[in-house]
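The material for today's practical consists of a large collection of protein records. Getting from the letters to the tokens is the skill we practise here. To make this concrete, we reproduce a full record directly below:
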Amino acid sequence: MSIKYYTHFLLQERAPKGMSEFRGVVEVNRTLLRGDLKEAATVLAKNFECDTKDIKVLQWSRLH
């Protein structure tokens, strides 16, 4: 069962160099601890095939 989260984050692009902004709903196969933006960044980085340090999570909240 997947759990839906609303997210708003920035991604540091390598080429062309700069920041990209994303927002929307993502589905995760497990519950993440409330307020754990580091774990949220890890999930997003895995999906975008980049380093966790390239992701800056601005908002992450579970949808009901």
